Amino acid sequence: MNYDLKFNDKKYTIETITLDEKTLKYRAFENIIYVKNPIDTNFQKLSIFVPETYYEGNSIGNYNLKTAPIFFPNTVGGYMPGAPERPGINKFINKPNATFYALLHGYIVVSPGARGRGLKDKNGKFTGTAPACIVDLKAAVRYLRHNKDIIPGNVEKIISNGTSAGGALSALLGSTGNHPDYESYLKELGAADERDNIFASSCYCPITNLENADKAYEWEFCRINDYHKMKFERIEGSPKPKLVPISREMNELQIELSKELKSLFPEYLNKLNLKSSNGTLLTIDSEGNGTFKDYIKSFVIKSAQKELNKGKNLSDLKWITIVNNEVTDVDFDKFIKFRTRMKDTPAFDNISMGTPENELFGTPEIQYRHFTEFSKNHSIVNGELSEEAQIKLMNPMNYISDNSCTTAKNFRIRHGAIDRDTSLAISAILAVTLEMNGVNVDYDLPWGIPHSGDYDLDELFAWIDNIVSN
Ligand code: DHB
Predict the structure, then answer these.
(1) What's the CA-to-centroid distance between 392 and ligand 1, angstroms?
(2) Start-to-end Cα distance in the chain
(3) What are the residues facing 25 on neighbouring strands?
């Protein structure tokens, strides 16, 4: 079936919802297929939500039906497919979702669906392997531009938002605007022939830069050989797999690989020639120490200081030095021990495969593949290696300084200080690289925050309002 890319502004419902003692009346244009030739209509669709008061000629703050920014939150997690989400309760945190609050705040919300790993067509072929998820988000942006005169809100003020794999996609969407590498995929789907660059990216704990994430993980966690995570396991007598805590020791081979991976990180990092905004070259020595480590530490100190200023007692944390209510130092290695290791080695491209990322880099026929030479060479399942081109398309680092794309002018990156799903180095590298390329970057490692997103929406919306008004 060939879908029409023209937005129908007559096809909507008017809804009212009360959450958190706040009532929201909104207009919902839902389940709009955003490409002419979709492969999966459960996911290649978007929903548009608009505060109903805009249709009564009113404004919210500085925004109205024409001028409101478009908040664009993807729902991708674990690189799995993510469907459009309505204003409602976020099941994971049992609180109203960002879509609800964004509408209350006066944004137009466009909730895009996207394909992801594990998705199959009727012939059993995988349809959501890389780069499907990013191609879909781009197609959704193009749909909005294609209909810019009838779409509510300002299509030149799209702010993407996502968490974890969704945060990585948000970063990718912001970094790769209009890049020709994605063109053939978009053409094949019948995406609108429009630009797909966006105004801003909000990225919570982005699981990104995947082909370098194993080295970065061991830079941080090498020498910590016990790992602790939650895992779905089948329990006897229980019909459904349950999330249970797992605590294990890495085996000898893993401990050896951890050391090897750690030793590979300095070469990668130092080649990036990262410079902080005050001109310091960010490097590390063969042990992983140096100005780059100090740079991340400075964000941990800043984050601890913020907490202290809120009146929090941090005196139990012996690895923090506090003098006269000022955080003067953090023992970084003790801080890492305090965080604990979550993943065994290699954390992303596992030598026995089976990680979300191994599945992301599959093919229509092959469920899992490696995406690093290192793990391909150490594979204990004789896994295949993904093509260079597929790997490239999923990493914003490959595009940020590429003149063939239009990078978003603004990035907000948050990586919880106790998040262990990926190394803090990964978000720091992304933040510095963007900054070096003229992007306005707001980067922080919020205190006490594990792997999660949307926990500081007031601050996020204040940031959005600020960049929109400038
Ligand atoms: C997510 C978490 C991970 O640890 C990972 O490797 C990939 C994705 C997530 O929560 O989306």
Answers:
(1) 19
(2) 43
(3) 16
32-67 pLDDT, tens digit each: 999 999 999 999 999 999 999 999 999 999 999 999
Helix (H, G, I), strand (E, B) or coil at 263: helix
One DSSP character per residue, 383-452 reads PPBPPHHHHHHT-GGGTTT-TTSB--SEEEEE--TT--SS-HHHHHHHHHHHHHTT-EEEEE--TT--S-
Measure the CA angle with vertex 390, ends 384 and 396; round to 5°: 130
Q: What is the mean pLDDT of the chain?
A: 97
Ligand 1 nearest atom to the CA of residue 76, by list position:
11
The closest-lying atom of ligand 1 relative to the alpha carbon of residue 422 is: 4
Q: Are strands 274-275 and 45-51 parallel, antiparallel or unpaired?
A: unpaired
Q: How far is the CA of 308 from the centre of ligand 1 (A)?
A: 30
Pocket of ligand 1 (CB under 6 A): 77-79, 164-165, 207, 356, 421
Q: What is the pLDDT of residue 241?
A: 82
Ligand 1 atom at minimum distance from 347 CA: 6
pLDDT of 243 strictly over 90? no
Structure tokens given for 342 = 């979550």
Indicate whether 198 pLDDT > 90. Answer: yes
Q: At what angle do helices 252-271 and 424-436 cross, to 10 degrees?
A: 10
Ligand 1 atom 2: residue of nearest CA? 78
Nearest CA to ligand 1 atom 9: 78
Atom of ligand 1 nearest to the CA of 421: 4
Q: Is the dihedral of CA 334, 274, 400, 355 positive or negative?
A: negative
Q: How far is the C-alpha of 391 from the C-alpha of 79, rounded, in Å? A: 14
pLDDT of residue 233: 81
| Three-state secondary-structure class, residue 118 | coil
Region 288-303: what's the mean pLDDT?
A: 98
Residue 207 CA to ligand 1 centre (angstroms): 6
The confidence band for 18, taking pLDDT boundaries of 50, 70 and 90, is very high
Beta strands in 34-125 (DSSP E): 45-51, 69-73, 89-90, 95-96, 108-112
15 alpha carbon – ligand 1 mean position (Å): 33
Instruction: State the pLDDT confidence band at 453, using cuts at 50, 70 and 90.
Output: very high
Q: How far is CA 172 from the centre of its chain?
A: 8
Q: Which of 117, 133, 161, 164 to mutate to test the pocket of ligand 1 (most atoms within 8 A of CB)?
A: 164
